[in-house]
Amino acid sequence: MPTILITGANRGIGRALAQSYLQDGWRVFAASRNPSESLIEGVEAITLDLSNPESIQELKRTLAGIPIDIVWNNAGVYLDKNQPLEQIDNNDWLRSFEINCIAPIRIAQALAENVSMSERKVIAFTTSKMASLTVNGARAYAYRSSKTALNMAVRCFAKDQEAQGISCLLLHPGHVKTDMGGPEGEIDIATSIAGMRSVVDQISPAYKANMDEGYFDYDGSRIPW
């Protein structure tokens, strides 16, 4: 039975990912700060506080020795939605970097051994089109910059993991109708999940050799860095 761990799995995209993989017969570990908020029968819930390094180490200890085919770093925050620069609190900016960039890399680092023991050997990261230096826009400084930093950190981490045969990929889920995406979202969550899963299923060594082309949109197209 293939195994996946998903962060931020108590709502939105993370919860939908957990449901999708569970329905396909996967063993699913769902990590979130408050897993009791939205329990899914059959999913193995794990408490994880992304702002607490010790919580990440506890996650590592809990999963020690278990092969994990996919670690999906999905959890994130969008604290400055539509805010102009003068309204953004510095603490929110720092927290955006902590949750959106630093924590996902630390989780990937903590679970890299588990992934290397598996058959698929994939670490996925939910990023955003708003992270692109080419397709950029105004406002949301904290969110944009934290996701851009994540993209760079993942590229560095991917280089470090080549010897272990681990594939690292960044995925934009699209503008989805969720609590974070808002009711003005352009696609429903089922479309996003199906698209991203298709991208993950098709990942190959060729992607690692062509990361310069950009990262992935949910439909498989590339977004320039």
From TrEMBL:
Among SUPFAM superfamilies, the record links this protein to:
NAD(P)-binding Rossmann-fold domains
UniProt cross-references to CDD domains, sorted A to Z: carb_red_sniffer_like_SDR_c (cd05325)
Q: Which Gene3D superfamilies match?
A: NAD(P)-binding Rossmann-like Domain (3.40.50.720)
Q: Which InterPro entries match?
A: NAD(P)-bd_dom_sf (IPR036291), SDR_enzymes (IPR052184), SDR_fam (IPR002347)
MF GO annotations: oxidoreductase activity, acting on the CH-OH group of donors, NAD or NADP as acceptor
Q: Which residues form the signal peptide?
A: none
Name of the featured protein: Short-chain dehydrogenase
Q: Top-down, what is the taxonomic lineage of the species of origin? A: Bacteria, Pseudomonadati, Pseudomonadota, Gammaproteobacteria, Oceanospirillales
